[in-house]
Amino acid sequence: MADDRKKLSMTLGESLRQQGVSRRGFLKYCAATASMMALPPNMVPAVAQALEKARRPSVIWLSFQECTGCTESLTRSHSPSVENLIFDHISLDYHHTLQVASGDAAEAAREAAMHENEGKYIVVVDGSIPLANPGYSAIAGISNLQMLEETVAGAAAVVAVGSCAAFGGLPHANPNPTGAVSVGEIIKDKPVVNVSGCPPIPTVITGVLAHFLTFGSLPELDALGRPMVFFGQSIHDRCYRRPFYDKGLFAETFDDEGARKGWCLFRLGCKGPMTYNACATAKWNQGTSWPVESGHGCLGCSEPDFWDAGGFYNALSIPDSDLTRKTGYVVGAGVALGAAAGALNRSTRAKAAAKHETVTIDDLDKKS
Amino acid sequence: MSEATLERGMNAFREQMNAPVASFFSSCVNCGMCAEACLFYTETGDPKYTPIHKLEPLRRVWEQEYTLWGRLKSMLGLSEPVTNELLEEWETLIYDGCTLCGRCSMVCPVGNDISYMIRRAREGFVAAGYAPEGIKGASRRAVTIGSPMGVKFPALAAQIKHVEADTGLTIPVDVEGADYMALLSSMEIMNFPEYLEALAKIFKQAGVTWTISSEAFEATNSGIQIGSSDIARELVNRVVVAAEKLKVKYVISPECGHAYTAIRWEGPNLIGRPYEFKVVHILELLDELRSAGRLKTEGTEDDRLTFHDPCQIVRKGGVLEPPRNLLKMIATNFVDMNDSREMNWCCGGGGGVSANERAEELRLKTFKRKKTQLDELNVDTLVTACANCRLIIEEGLEEYRMEMPVVGLTEMIAEHLVEDEK
Asked: Does B34 lie in the same domain as B164?
């Protein structure tokens, strides 16, 4: 317990070194974080300095209507990594899945963290909130809505992790039996950062927290409340298969030559052009790969209502019928119309020629 | 006796609406570049002389009867019809204000052959009775007498006699089986008999067998100028019949612009079959004799001189270099005008304008363009190869009090022929 206290009072830098992370390793992480957040290189020392000195903020993690995929993403994929260690060094005071305590003790820990860090703690939410009937999802007899409102009341900021918390996600999908809504639809008086994705990229989750630790503020957000640095560009614009799209080279099936040659997956339903996320650059599983690289189109999971946005294998804007044939018909109709007009004009001319009366020198004058 | 009516004119307009005309009208972008190429616009500054604007009556027929929108518009009564008043107004644009020189066709950015369309539009005007009196008279004389200037064969025979007396050479008439049959323009017969003399001398030296036909010596074709294919066909046919009767291999078009267009380009289309002979322009023939070494000259012209390119021969006929090759044989101080060859400016009297007395004032006004070209060069002598250009330029020079001899190229060559003792 005393050890725990000590750990609580340590700065991030001290804590990292105690864990055996070298200064060099730490700076590398800072540089990577700065570049990922599109900060200029001269901000790296500032990031390092801020992180070095940062006190571990209290984080309360609330899980509502969710599948725990977001937590899996965060805890599994990059282990062991610097990000993971950083995560170790926030004070994760409440997390259903990860905490040891259960029942009343667990709820007491949450309340304690809230009171001790009043106005300073961060609430991370994964999962949507059912409004149709509070009974659809409750924890320790407390409805999700009630728990969210209570917990957020004294928070500095809310991070909605995953598409369920950010946009309603899967529970919100038509016909939405539980009346699920996103965090942002309930919380209007606190800053809410949406880290969407199903699940979101772990680096993006830690990146947002690192930004908060470094600058004491939340990153710049896009129109959907997502951090611009990670969600500013579409998958399509950063995709390494983009040159094939530009050349018009598409895989038509998952096992054709185009697919084997790594051509664009647009016609196989890739939602990259309308999806804003960092997958194409940050990648998954410690930068091993990402969906498009493994041969499957983007599902668009970081966009609102992606579940209801048509079939995953329907191309975004391919004509729903045979374009070549249609063009053929139109061209044919055009040719026929042109020929008809030509024939009509020719017959007008031929009629005029038939009516031609030879002009002689005797009829150059007009009789008045 | 039949008469010209608006109905016949409209019918003629409809007949002229072939694929080139229709596509030219539909591709016109109204850029107005043809205006700057037209001496009637540049010398008057009046936008009504913009070449494509001169085609308004024909354009209306095309729009109202050959396009979908135009048909709809005229069904709804939204378009202005072609009327007698319109044709009367446009008559002065299409006859007095155009020499069919074709310079506008050269500059059109979409490639419209505007002078081709004007030539066709005249078919409608003449059928509707809107042609200038002067050209009507010339056409009547051409058909009835055989020459627009009323020259009959006895007049030519008299000139032949003179030339034979002067030179001691024989001018062959109606010689069957000669290689060449020479045509003359009545202007050459009456005003410039030197041309006939030059032919006799040159052909003697070069050993060319030639003849003149007493039945068809007239090269000019008023039908082309007034814009009536029917009349033009009748006139061309006379030459074709005579040439084929004499079994000549070639017909020589004289130093006359539109005569060359008529016999060389329009003729076979008018009669609807290829000729049994070939047509050459006298300059082409002379250049051929030159390159074959059959044309020997001596002495040089040392005056500063320039060459006026006749539109129909140079721009429309493509005879660009022969006159220059020939001039190089005898002229030491030859200069080209600015805008020479295919971009030369018209003398102002082509396309029937010279036969149209009404147009004289306008024609002399447009001559300022040629005057400017000549003033820039400061030349002593002007050489040309079209009797009509020559006469028009002489009148223009007189009007603007410029002293400068105007000489036909053929006769200038003839003057420098090596005198053969044999």
From this structure: no
ipTM over 0.95: no
Distance CA A37, CA A213 (A): 13
Number of domains composing chain B: 3
B227 and B267 co-located in one domain: yes
- Within an 8 Å CB–CB cutoff, is residue A360 touching chain B? yes
Q: Is there a domain that residue B420 lies in? A: no
Does B258 share its domain with B381? no
Taking contacts as CB-CB distances below 8 angstroms, the residues of chain A near B140 are 361, 364
**B251 and B376 belong to one structural domain:** no
CATH (domain of B279): 1.20.1050
Hey, is the C-beta of A257 within 8 angstroms of any chain B C-beta? no
The CA–CA distances, whole Å, from A321 to A251, A324, B265 equal: 18, 9, 54
Based on the number of CB atoms within 10 Å of its own CB, is A142 exposed (0-12), middle (13-18) or buried (19 or more)? middle
Same domain, B339 and B371: yes
CA of B142: which chain A residue's CA is closest? A361
Could you list the pLDDT tens digit for every one of the 422 residues in chain B? 578 899 999 999 999 999 999 999 999 999 999 999 999 999 999 999 999 999 999 999 999 999 989 999 999 999 999 999 999 999 999 999 999 999 999 999 999 999 999 999 999 999 999 999 999 999 999 999 988 888 899 999 999 999 999 999 999 999 999 999 999 998 889 888 899 999 999 999 999 999 999 999 999 999 999 999 999 999 999 999 999 999 999 999 999 999 999 999 999 999 999 999 999 999 999 999 999 999 999 999 999 999 999 999 999 999 999 999 999 999 999 999 989 999 999 999 999 999 999 999 999 999 999 999 999 999 999 999 999 999 999 999 999 999 999 999 999 999 999 876 44
Rg over CA atoms, chain A: 31
Whether B346 is covered by a domain: the verdict is yes
B275 & B152 share domain: yes
Torsion from C-alpha of A303, A308, A311, A313, nearest 10 degrees: 10
Cα distance between residue B243 and residue B275, in whole Å:
9
A343–chain B nearest CA distance, Å: 11
Same domain? For B15 and B110 the reply is yes
Q: Is B140 inside a domain boundary?
A: no
Which of B291, B318, B335 is where one domain is finished? B291
| Nearest CA among A236, A60, A76 for reference residue A161 | A60
Structural domains present in chain A: 2-46+54-229 (3.40.50.700), 235-308 (4.10.480.10)
For residue B168, the tally of other CB atoms under 10 A from its CB is 9
Using the beta-carbon criterion (under 8 Å), do B15 and A348 form an inter-chain contact?
A: no
**Amino acid of residue A143:** S
| Inter-chain CB proximity B136 and A364 less than 8 Å | yes
Q: How far is A177 from chain B (nearest CA, A)?
A: 58
Q: Are A254 and A295 in contact (CB under 8 A)?
A: yes
Whether B374 and B409 share a structural domain: yes
* Domain assignment of residue B276, yes or no: yes
Domain that includes residue B31, residue range: 6-131
Please name the helix (run of DSSP H) or strand (run of DSSP E) that holds residue B211, with its range, or none: strand B210-211
Q: How far is A345 from chain B (nearest CA, A)?
A: 6
The last residue of one of the domains, among B232, B263, B291, is B291
Tell me whether B143 touches chain A (CB under 8 Å). Answer: yes
